[in-house]
Amino acid sequence: MMASKQWVDALDGQVREMRINKNMDNAEKYFVQRMDGVLLLSFIAAEAEVVNVRRDFGTKLAKPFSPGVNAHGRINYFGYLWPDVDKQARAVINTLRVNPHFLSFIFDLWHRRVRALKRLEQNISIFQLKRLDDDCLGRIFRTLINRYQEQYSPSLLCDAFGLYVEKVITTQLKHIVSERGEERKLAHYLEILTAPRRISWATKEEIELLRIAALCKRKKRLASLLCHDFTVGKKEFAKDKVLADLLDTHTRKYFWLQNSYGKGVKLSRDYFLRRIRTIIRDEGRIEDKIQELFHTAQRYRQKKHLMAKLKIDHYTCLLLEWIESFGFLHDARKAVMMEAHYWITIVLREIGRRLGLTLSEMYYTDHHKIETMLRDKRIARALIHERMKLCAYVIWPSHYRIVVGRQAHMWHERFLGGTRKAIGELKGVSAASGVAVGNAKVVRDVNDGRKIKPDDILVTGMTRPHWMPFLKKVKAIVTDEGGITCHAAIVAREMHIPCIIGTKVATRVLHDNDLIEVNTNHHCVRIIKKGSL
What we know:
Layout: H1 4-17, H2 26-29, E1 30-36, H3 39-57, E2 66-71, E3 75-81, H4 82-98, H5 102-126, H6 134-155, H7 157-180, H8 186-194, H9 201-218, H10 220-228, H11 230-239, H12 241-254, H13 269-282, H14 286-293, H15 296-310, H16 314-355, H17 359-362, H18 370-376, H19 381-389, E4 390-395, E5 400-404, H20 405-416, E6 425-427, E7 429-432, E8 435-443, E9 457-460, H21 468-471, E10 476-479, H22 487-495, E11 499-501, H23 506-509, E12 515-519, E13 524-529
Parallel strand pairs: 8-9, 9-10, 10-11
Antiparallel strand pairs: 1-3, 2-3, 2-4, 4-5, 6-13, 7-11, 8-12, 12-13
């Protein structure tokens, strides 16, 4: 086995080949995404970026390698070298310019593969997994992972494209507003020009649930029972066939809503019924809330008017059109992946039962070796437990490494690096316009969301779809990562709250209860008063 220093030096050799200054801060060397994540679910996604994209689209459109770190059994970091991100994005743009049908090809390929994945998921739902022999169970697992990675591949071109085009569009727009003397309107213009024409799936789900809540609220006795005694109200709700059928349909459609790279669970109808109770209690006119969320036509008219007003050139118009399409695909793939994580978990749980491993332990196995484990019944339990503490991985097109112990600690430090910097102002990209002042709350995973109070300002690496319950409380959003099509940007625009993304260091500089100002006119976050630690 390669010694830890040799292994890390080998990775740094790839960094040197990309002509990156070794003294550069790691926040500038790597684009790092932090998320709730377990090893297996995070690894198969990272592997698709290197292996499946290369297989589908060739070397030019794929990343040369993908490193990651999984810490404390619940947090995962994906990372890419910035030159790789820019190189991949430029290759996507060049392909789109040469072949105008390439975007349609990507969408068609993704939809076909999603259908294949969902057919398999439907079969798993009716399989009696306990009755299958080990070989058959292993084949189902392998097919499920393969189809997951295959559907992921086309949508992965969104990520680099969004990050790169953000810089191009922002630079171009800065030049235009400067000539017009409208520098303060940059954030507002950027928000309009990059806003998606279609609502996100998270907003669609909220609108559909609001409609059920509106029907329930009209039935005053039922609404009163539900709000004052949930157990009694639930029984009364079940007697109303129309409402009960609507809620059952909604539950089947969105049972995966709280899933992530860290878990695959199935929400019950009680979860959605409790949300209906909260809506009835807290919302004023539910119909007004629905109208507020459903404003895509207005967005489109604003965008077309502004493009004409600013005399946006043809190339930038194309970039805006492409980024809107990629933004939709970026959002849509999350729903597919979150549902798939449930089915992967179902199969993993059955494999674990046969191997004498818990689901938590199964999440830290090497997915390439699970079929062999089923066949030979050889379990490296000690290694699994080491991975649950801390592990690091690097995936190349033809091989991969997963390491623990000292090797993982060294790569963890190299990969993330950096200490808190004593600065009073952070710069980023304005993703949703506005100005807000409030207490910072640094959220690193979904468990940290409990400390969020109404009108706090969320500071995080990047928001995730399953964070929506506490995202609705915040006054503004600040992130380390992300592009103008990222989840934080989409959510902030839909909720009409200020958002600054891509600060790189917000979670390292800011502390809980720091009083901060988020000012998208100046693309900055200012520390007004340090909070007590």
